[in-house]
């Protein structure tokens, strides 16, 4: 497809369960971002990749959050031992290079019950 | 630290009328980018308009224009000839001008458009 694709679109997890969220960026896009958007809030930065290198993970809220992009394309955001406060929409965005427009996916809505 | 503030949680406008959404930000940088994004119920963030801080001229994209006041750190969005399809959440965002290009978002304004 032409845009950023995220899967699944919806995920319900029991508290304590591990989850993995996938992001397929636009082909050829070097930069990839993950954001967390709590209900009624604006997105908040989690982490940034340039190709396969994770250059900024300052926004990850705890060591239960882990992101990877091993081949510089698809990225996975993993949350271990999910808690209720992890419930949010997780948005992925990609761009061609530094300084250019970022294109967003439709996000994954995670609900922890 | 950079912050972005949107003080209007909700706004409404009648179709074909004009509405202005407010945004203020705080930064010590002199060169940066500001954005307005639209987020419909589908959740996908769509870029509406962008402004480079070093440009004095206000950006315009069809019915959308900004009033950028650098000294006041104000960046409002004007939507002219509002259409039903403009109804959405609107987020103001600031882009950190170095390292990662990460965006800092405001809390959003929900725009309702009435026929």
List the defining traits of the structure above.
heterodimer; A: about 110 residues; mainly beta; seven-stranded mixed sheet; four-stranded antiparallel sheet; about 0% helix; globular; B: about 120 residues; six-stranded mixed sheet; 12 strands
How many strand units of chain B? Answer: 12
Mean pLDDT of chain B: 94
| SSE series of chain B | EEEEEEEEEEEE
Tally of separate helices of chain B: 0
Number of strands of chain A: 11
Shape of chain A: globular
Percent of residues in helices of chain B comes to under 10%
Percentage of residues in strands of chain B: over 45%
Instruction: Report the uncertain regions of chain B.
Output: none
What does the largest sheet of chain B look like? 6 strands, mixed
Shape field of chain B: globular
SSE layout and pairing:
The complex is a heterodimer of chains A (113) and B (115).
Chain A (H helix, E strand, L loop, with lengths): L4 E3 L2 E4 L5 E6 L6 E7 L6 E7 L2 E4 L8 E4 L6 E5 L8 E8 L7 E2 L3 E5 L1
Chain B lengths: L2 E3 L4 E5 L4 E3 L2 E3 L6 E7 L6 E7 L7 E2 L2 E6 L4 E6 L8 E8 L7 E3 L3 E6 L1
Parallel strand pairs in B: 2-12
Antiparallel strand pairs in B: 1-4, 3-9, 5-6, 5-10, 7-8, 8-9, 10-11, 10-12
Description:
The complex is a heterodimer of chains A (113) and B (115). With 113 residues, chain A is mainly β. Chain A is built from no helices and eleven strands. Chain A has strands spanning 5-7, 10-13, 19-24, 31-37, 44-50, 53-56, 65-68, 75-79, 88-95, 103-104, 108-112. In chain A, the strands form two sheets. In chain A, strands 2, 4, 5, 6, 9, 10 and 11 form a seven-stranded mixed β-sheet that branches. In chain A, strands 1-3-8-7 form a four-stranded antiparallel β-sheet, with no helix packed on it. Chain A is globular. By secondary structure, chain B is an all-beta fold. In chain B, strands 2, 5, 6, 10, 11 and 12 form a six-stranded mixed β-sheet that branches. Chain B has a four-stranded antiparallel β-sheet with strand order 3-9-8-7, with no helix packed on it. A two-stranded antiparallel sheet of chain B has the order 1-4. The relative contact order of chain B is 0.33. Chains A and B meet through strand 4, strand 5 and strand 9 of A and strand 6 and strand 11 of B.
């Amino acid at each position: 497809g032409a845009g950023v694709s995220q899967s699944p679109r919806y995920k319900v997890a029991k508290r304590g369960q591990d989850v993995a969220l996938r992001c397929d960026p636009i082909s050829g896009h070097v930069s990839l971002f993950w954001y967390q958007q709590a209900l009624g809030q604006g997105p908040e930065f989690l982490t940034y990749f340039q190709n396969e290198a994770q250059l900024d993970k300052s926004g990850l809220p705890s060591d239960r959050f882990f992101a990877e992009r091993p081949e510089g394309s698809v990225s996975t955001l993993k949350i271990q031992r999910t808690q209720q406060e992890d419930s949010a929409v997780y948005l992925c965005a990609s761009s061609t290079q530094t300084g250019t427009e970022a294109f967003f996916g439709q996000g994954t809505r995670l609900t922890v019950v | 630290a950079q912050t972005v503030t949107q003080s209007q949680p909700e706004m409404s406008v009648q179709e074909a009328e004009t509405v202005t959404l407010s945004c203020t930000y705080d930064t010590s940088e002199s060169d940066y980018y500001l954005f307005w994004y639209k987020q419909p119920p589908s959740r996908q963030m769509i870029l509406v308009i962008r402004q480079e801080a070093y440009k004095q001229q206000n950006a315009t994209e069809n019915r959308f224009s900004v009033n950028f006041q650098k000294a006041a750190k104000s960046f409002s969005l004007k939507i002219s000839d509002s259409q039903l399809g403009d109804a959405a959440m609107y987020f103001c965002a600031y882009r950190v001008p170095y390292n990662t290009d990460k965006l800092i978002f405001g809390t959003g304004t929900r725009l309702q458009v009435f026929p």
